[in-house]
Write a structure and sequence with these properties.
The chain is α+β, with helices and mostly antiparallel strands. The protein contains ten helices and ten strands. The strands form three sheets. Strands 2-1-3-9 form a four-stranded antiparallel beta sheet, with no helix packed on it. A four-stranded antiparallel beta sheet has the order 6-8-7-10, with helices on one face. It is globular and about 60 Å long.
């Protein structure tokens, strides 16, 4: 068993990988203690820190049941297909579509008085509802939008309304950020990590041909995030197209996942600038849409 190794984490999510890894260790005759050590060896290589509670829970489940996977990648899972990215970015003539063209096509040019307050009030027009924002993955708060004083230093936001102030995590702990207090999906957010950054604008352009593009912003790193307004009965169709083109499947599976907040600041100090914004495509509440004049008066 000295040659036994775990598959490294991939796009199917940390929880799935941990549970499947525990199952593979059980099948291979690895002790629970050694299994825990092998899983923790990947700390720092995942999109978020590995939590001790989720590792303990996964090992208990795997070693006390008939759970015996040999690989954590399920064949029926939709995943990134590089050939789909190539098709979406291929142009027989001329230059590849780029971020500047996205900026030029924005119905509201970001430099023309478009502030973080305007964007967030347009994205979440119901001022009576709760939203969850985070300065980091561990420092977050849930409240009404008008209760936050300054969100420019935050990194994250949940692209849904929250149903209540707190909910219960899978560990049975009370938290302001969990699936239990997250409402139905409001926006489908495309986070492009796998494809080359130069291909991101073209991928977004292709998705925009079929689905309503609301916003594109820089992650403050190499990738672009694109927010789409997709009717609930079309969500499966959206992800079936978006994920093979490079969209992060974790955001498809978990609607409570954090995404980059427009107008925020990444931990490295880079701004998460809005490149494209179409207020007319935002999800509306039952009241009248907030006018730009009203938004400016409230600032």
């Amino acid at each position: 068993m000295n040659n036994f190794k775990l598959n490294p984490p991939n796009e199917y999510g940390i929880n799935i990988w941990i549970l499947a890894s525990a199952g593979r260790c059980k099948v291979a005759g690895i002790s629970e203690a050694e299994c825990e050590r092998m899983i923790y060896a990947y700390q720092g290589q995942t999109r978020r820190p590995i939590k001790r509670s989720e590792v303990t829970r996964a090992i208990q489940k795997a070693y006390s049941s008939t759970f015996t996977p040999t690989n954590y990648v399920k064949p029926d899972k939709v995943s990134w297909q590089p050939n789909q990215t190539r098709r979406s970015t291929y142009k027989p003539q001329g230059k590849k579509y780029d971020a500047y063209q996205l900026w030029e096509e924005s119905p509201w040019i970001p430099d023309d008085g478009l502030t973080q307050t305007i964007v967030l009030k347009s994205l979440f027009p119901d001022s009576s509802r709760l939203i969850c924002v985070g300065k980091s993955a561990f420092a977050f708060h849930t409240a009404r939008l008008n209760q936050f004083k300054d969100l420019t230093q935050c990194q994250f936001i949940v692209p849904c309304y929250m149903t209540k102030k707190t909910g219960m995590t899978q560990d049975g702990k009370e938290s302001m950020h969990c699936l239990d207090n997250c409402d139905e999906r409001l926006y489908c957010v495309v986070d492009l990590d796998e494809p080359k950054s130069a291909d991101h604008p073209s991928i977004i352009k292709q998705l925009k041909r079929v689905f309503d593009l609301v916003m594109v912003l820089s992650s403050g790193g190499k990738s672009l995030h694109a927010w789409f307004n997709v009717p609930s009965d079309e969500e499966k169709d959206f992800w079936d197209v978006a994920v093979p083109m490079g969209a992060d499947a974790a955001l498809m599976r978990n609607r409570s996942s954090f995404v980059r907040i427009p107008g925020g600041t990444r931990e490295n100090g880079n701004k998460q600038s809005v490149l494209y914004f179409d207020e007319s495509k935002c999800v509306k509440n039952n009241k009248e849409t907030i006018s730009n004049e009203e938004i400016h008066r409230e600032q």
